[in-house]
Amino acid sequence: MLIKQPDDIKPSEITSKSDYLNRRAFMRNTGLLLGGAWVGAELLGSDAVMAATKKLEFMKKTTYGQGEKVTDFKYTSRYNNFYEFSLDKKGARKKAENFKTDPWSLEIAGEVEKKGVFQLEDILKPHTLEQRIYRFRCVEAWAMVVPWIGIPLASVLKQYQPTSKAKYVSFETLHDPAQMPGQKSGVLEWPYREGLRMDEAMHPLTFLAVGMYDETLPNQNGAPIRLVVPWKYGFKSIKSIVKIELTEKQPKTTWSDINNREYGFFANVNPEVDHPRWSQAKHRVLGGGVFSGKEKTKPFNGYEKEVSSLYKGMDLSQFF
User: Fold this and answer.
1) Would you say residue 41 has pLDDT above 50?
2) Every domain of the chain and the residues it spans
3) Which CATH number fits domain 11-311: 3.40.50.970, 2.40.280.10, 2.30.130.10, 3.90.420.10?
């Protein structure tokens, strides 16, 4: 299982941003083996491009993910799907460098008793923050293990008192083409939208992240607030959220609306259901090194014990 006891992960296994930046000479002169292909350090780009982050204090360390080998910051901060900035995984970081995330407001709408527009700091107080280490699965057969910092989504939703009509939760990313140059393209319908069933949203594993590796989120990783749903593929974990709406009907979601054959609404990690263009049966952990092999993909990304009851009686080859 991916949630393990006890405190058997060493602090040295988590690479801080400062430690990583001290490795510039190594990264400049050494190539990396990723996915069986030799790729030079230019894949990850120059160290000069790194938007400022701030140290997060007062967070509670948890036992989530203890025993997992945390992916090095140099990979998680430089291999990013964020189409609002760039279609290139290594290009989003540079184009997001000057993205303004402070101040940031979040609209709470729909089937709630308390709706309105709230400042982020009013929703997430420092004393509520906790760190969770989650394995995070990309649909392209890559995985990474990230120490996220944030708060369970359920804790936020309860503040605004969902009504009995609330069956789904929808999320919306900021729409600002002046800051997000990727939104000037027609590759997707903007703004980006995602959604969960209410029971998925209220599950204890579902997480709103405002940081990673003891600091605030880098812009390219979804600053200042993003969703993390560790048993689903990464595209469900929407970034730079500005609106959360509780609805009675299943909401529109960006990828499942434009290509439902490849990207279903549920997007649960299922090794028995292949993407039409590649297998999901195995994956590689990002940055695993020269001799890293493929790992067998576990149902629900290894969180089967915790979440499988949500889908009892469902045909997961149909509702993928």
Assistant:
1) no
2) 11-311
3) 3.90.420.10
